[in-house]
Amino acid sequence: MITPAPPKVFSDNRRTAARRRSRSLQRQPDAARYILDDMVEDVLERLAFLRLNPRRALIIGDWTGALAVQLRTTGCDVTVAEPADGFIEEQPFPENGFDLVASLGTLDTVNDLPGALIHIRNALAPEGLAIASFMGAGSLPQLRAAMLDADGERPAPRLHPMVDVRAGGQLLQRAGWSDPVVDSRSLDVRFRSLDSLVADLRAQALGNVLMRAGPALGRTALATARAAFGVRTVERFEILTLSGWRR
Fold this sequence. Notes:
Elements: H1 12-25, H2 34-50, E1 56-60, H3 66-72, E2 77-81, E3 98-104, H4 113-123, E4 124-135, H5 141-151, H6 165-175, E5 178-190, H7 194-203, H8 219-230, E6 234-245
Parallel strand pairs: 1-2, 1-3, 3-4
Antiparallel strand pairs: 4-6, 5-6
Helix pairs in contact: 4-6, 5-8
């Protein structure tokens, strides 16, 4: 029996372009990178709590390089992978036997999330640990509200669907992760305008990469969105973290 391919919700080309654009924007000294910084710090705190010193690690999506630098100071052999450079999370990984696989900020825009989680598990050595962090349900409520105001009676797909804690737990069980743990934390950021939020999203590869994205906002709609967001200057990012072992 042939398993049908998952639906194409996200555009591979738009996803790659967004991550490459982000990497270019990160060359600016004031580029926003607080989401990935938070994820890196969280991974390091989890490893310290578990007193885990991996000998081999695969780091996916950390374009800052900060996590790899920290792990290498402990003597860890680190392999770095980036979707913008052709690494495909929805196919079997070219290497395995890792004591740690950390995926940061990429799994929320794959079309086959269960398959990607299975490939992460298969890349682990026995007793290896996987940690995956990405944007979860509850993120960007103020932006969503502003877009609904701008679109009026004909809302367009502008922000992609996101995974919540409950769905994350079900996905880990389906993917065969042992002792799965799912948690979510919020990061609140104050913005001076809608445009400053959009700039931060682009700099961090968090923009719309849907296969069927909505049309660009017209001048009037954009003015409506800016006005709606103007009184909602604190935006929330919900970071979902999945972790588990290969037993």
